[in-house]
Amino acid sequence: MRRFSRAHAGLLALALVLAAVPLLTSNSFYLDLAVRIAINAIVAIGLNLLIGYAGQISLGHAGFVGMGAYASAVLTTHWQFPPLAALLAGAAGVGLLAFLVARPILRLKGHYLAMATLGLGIIITIVITNEAQWTGGPDGMAVPAFSVAGLALAGEMHWYIVMALLLLLVCWCALNLIDAPAGRALQALHGSEIAARVAGVDVVRAKVQVFVLSAVLASVMGSLTAHYIGFVTPGQAGFFHSVELVTMVVVGGMASVFGSVAGAALLTLLPQALSSFEGWETVVFGAILMATMIFLPGGLVPSLRQRFAKGAH
């Protein structure tokens, strides 16, 4: 009950923060940052279910983001799909691919698993870059506005409202999943796959399900990002984006839904805040991340929660 109450208190706090943002500013730049934070947070939550809860590393997760983005771009541009249909088709395609590759890839462990997922991400990036007649190649391609039943999402405020609601929904679903038997099964196999099997957990099935779920979430957000920005490039599927997503999970807090949100906010805002350090922003950024992991080794949210709990006692 304590954990249940804490999770719902966190959800309420997040809802209040999201509701306060448009009241505090209507500046399009800040709303754009808030939209990007929400997008990154949703992808990070899905990745945290895979890495933080199930203990399965993925260094190619941006490949699924890129696949979703290009599915929407190609299907709406070349095949005149409605944007929502393109998004759903992309998510279904990514889910099928994730299902097909999950069993052989997730049999691996440690650095072998990391290399396999990295290879998958690289393959996706190469295919996107080389199929220039469909994807525009390295230069990327334009994506039409997102619309449903003739109603188009236009302007940062509309996008912010949609993304804020979607972030709350994903957080709520993730929190409920974690407390459900399926979520406890994920945490069991993270601790020990052998013990999880003895306890009756279908380890392979649990791994495949969480891998597919995280991939589909990444695909949906990739599609929405493509429509929001209006342009997509192979960089969205690249290795550096994958590393950025993993860093959000680790810095925010492994096995923490709200840690994913905090990590996404930090890594989205820091480059903007450090833009005044001309030529040194990357060095300062790296130093801040190092200090965070040294002094808050469990990640921002779990470490701060633990320190406040100690202080309360």
UniProtKB/TrEMBL annotation:
Quote the InterPro entries the UniProt record gives: ABC_transp_permease, LivM-like
Keyword vocabulary terms for this entry = Cell membrane, Membrane, Transmembrane, Transmembrane helix
Q: Where are the transmembrane segments?
A: 29-50, 57-75, 81-100, 112-129, 157-178, 210-233, 245-270, 282-301
State its location(s): Cell membrane
CDD domains from the entry?
TM_PBP1_LivM_like
Primary localization = membrane
Name of this protein? Branched-chain amino acid ABC transporter permease
Per its UniProt entry, which superkingdom is the organism in?
Answer: Bacteria
Q: How does it sit in the membrane?
A: Multi-pass membrane protein
